[in-house]
Amino acid sequence: MKKALALLLAVVMLLGMVACNNSETETQDNTPTTPAGDDNTTPSDDSGSDSGEEYTGPTGEITFVAWGSDAEIECDLEACEAFMASHPGTTVHFEALNDDYGTAVETRFIGGQSPDVIYGHPQTLLSWMREGMLMPLSDIYEEHEELWDEELYSTNLYDAYLYEGDYYATPVGACTTVLFYNKDMLDAAGLDYPTADTTWEELSEMAEATTVRDADGVPTTIGLSTATGNWLNVLFSKGGKFLDDMNNPTEVVFESPEALETLEWIKQASDDGIAPSADDGTYLTGGFAGGEYAFYMSGVYDIVWLSAIEDFEWDIAPLPESMHQEGDTPVLYAGYAVSSQSENPELAKEFAYFMTTYEAQRIMAKTGLITPLRKDVAMLDEVLDIPGGPEHHSLRVETLPYSQNQQGQCLCWWEMTAVVDNYIYQMVDDQITPEDAMHAIQTECSELLDAELANQ
User: Fold this and answer.
1) Pairing relationship of beta strands 117-120 and 219-224 according to DSSP bridges
2) pLDDT of amino acid 32
3) CB within 8 A of 282, min separation 6: which ones?
4) Do 292 and 380 share a structural domain?
5) Same domain assignment for residues 401 and 418
6) pLDDT in the model for residue 361
7) Structural contact between residues 239 and 258, judged by C-beta atoms closer than 8 angstroms
8) CA gap 90, 82 in Å, rounded
9) Quick one: pLDDT at residue 395?
10) Residue 401 and residue 412 share a domain
11) Assigned domain for 166 exists
12) What is the C-alpha separation between 179 and 238, in angstroms, rounded?
């Protein structure tokens, strides 16, 4: 079919809130539109869209669901339009599900009307992989050899979607955790800015120098936004592990010298008052963006929200000790899976592959919320030089080779993290020692994982 053929995009869109959160949404009627395309988008040399060759692949209709901020939804829509423009004879019906995404998709699976293409983190998709509700996509990786070009793609992201020897999604990208810091606060304290060589002990010293309390101990500013919530950041950077393999866990391996160092660092930070206590939270409500914390550890997606800061200068650095080897830095992935209920699986797989191409990656990079899978897109000036962005924005790309999945691929993951949090809070409250906390975490989390593995 000729490229001049007018195609229709049927959009069922639920207008949503910010990325990675769910909220009440408003349904918009299906409105057919003609693919518009983007005159400023460089055609993908691997999508088969504008190479001058007539598209001869699968045709028909598919449905695609995702969640996200308004900006992400706009990019999803633009990607659908770009796909149809380069794949004549196809229609993509897109729906944004920002209200309890997992339950909404699960309900459609149960009713036998699941979407064809499903966006999600590996944890989001895990139970569906195990239950045979998703289609293996290994053939995409086999047919498109360029996906294994390490100069072009961050191939270390793929294994998060690997289950029993098959890949079940194509990644759109990932978000590593970095250290945000208030340059003005460090300047006022006469401190150098953190670098890749900064240690956790040095970070504690800088946090102490930027913590200001009155005679009654009431804080004006505090060095660290949290200590208790950073246990995985510290553990990974010290070479420690929580699971033997975050992508395919068979045992909990938390109890170790590195874990003890992690817990002792958290306890010391709490004792020194360089991270907020529960009481401090009643005085400090503005967070890092409000200029109340010198340091804040979070995913690079927060760069988008923090770019609106006007009251002080800020930047990002790697987490302390986190750029020595692969596995030092926590990372969150996102990608596209295909339902095993799909009535047009070949077209659904074509769309999942398309989302890895230059054209689609450049569209999805516009939000700034995720670091694109393709390195040539991730390092584009238009991606890194955003208004209000940090000087060292390229760290979102440079930290990826040192990353590992920050969410264990087991259904009991959130139960295990609740166990960790519980014992860390007890430790900080002087109810138990770091050694006792470490042993209790190891014991209870092992029981949870062993029970899950026994029932698989």
Assistant:
1) unpaired
2) 32
3) none
4) no
5) no
6) 97
7) yes
8) 11
9) 97
10) no
11) yes
12) 16
Spatial distance between the Cα atoms of 368 and 437, rounded to a whole number of angstroms: 38
CB 403 within 8 A of CB 174: yes
Q: How many CA atoms lie within 13 A of 94 on its CB side?
A: 28
Q: Is residue 105 a contact partner of residue 65, using CB atoms and an 8 Å limit?
A: yes
List strand residue ranges (DSSP E) for 183-311, in order.
212-213, 219-224, 293-299
pLDDT value of position 5: 33
Q: Are residues 392 and 414 in the same domain?
A: no
Domain count along the chain: 2
Q: Are 338 and 352 in contact (CB under 8 A)?
A: yes
Type of residue at 390: P
Query: Of all residues in the chain, what percent are helix, strand and coil, respectively (each to 5)?
Result: 40, 20, 45
Tally of residues, the chain: 456
Nearest CA-CA partner of 121 in 414, 343, 441:
414
Q: Which residue, chain included where needed, has tokens 């918009």?
A: 28
Q: How far is C-alpha 43 from the geometric centre of its chain's CA atoms?
A: 26
* Residue 52 pLDDT: 53
Residue 280's pLDDT is what?
81
Domain of residue 397: give its range: 11-175+332-405
Residue 437: inside a domain: yes
Rounded Cα distance, 428 and 408, in Å: 25
Q: Are residues 257 and 130 in the same domain?
A: no
pLDDT value of position 278:
79
Alpha carbon distance 273, 383 (integer Å): 38
pLDDT at site 7:
35
* 2 belongs to a structural domain: no
Give the largest Cα separation in the chain, rounded: 77
pLDDT of residue 104: 96
217: domain CATH number is 3.40.190.10
Q: Are 344 and 116 in contact (CB under 8 A)?
A: yes
CB 289 within 8 A of CB 306: yes
Contact status, residue 319 vs residue 337, Cβ threshold 8 Å = no
Q: What type of residue sits at position 77?
A: L
Q: Does the residue 4 lie in any domain? A: no
**Do residues 265 and 201 both lie within one domain?**
yes
Give the pTM. 0.87
Residue 359 tokens read as 């054209």
User: Which of 356, 241, 371 is CA-nearest to residue 302?
Assistant: 371
Query: Sign (positive/negative) of CA torsion 74, 75, 76, 78?
Result: positive
**Regions of the chain short of the pLDDT cut 70:** 1-52
Q: Do 266 and 206 reside in the same domain of the chain?
A: yes
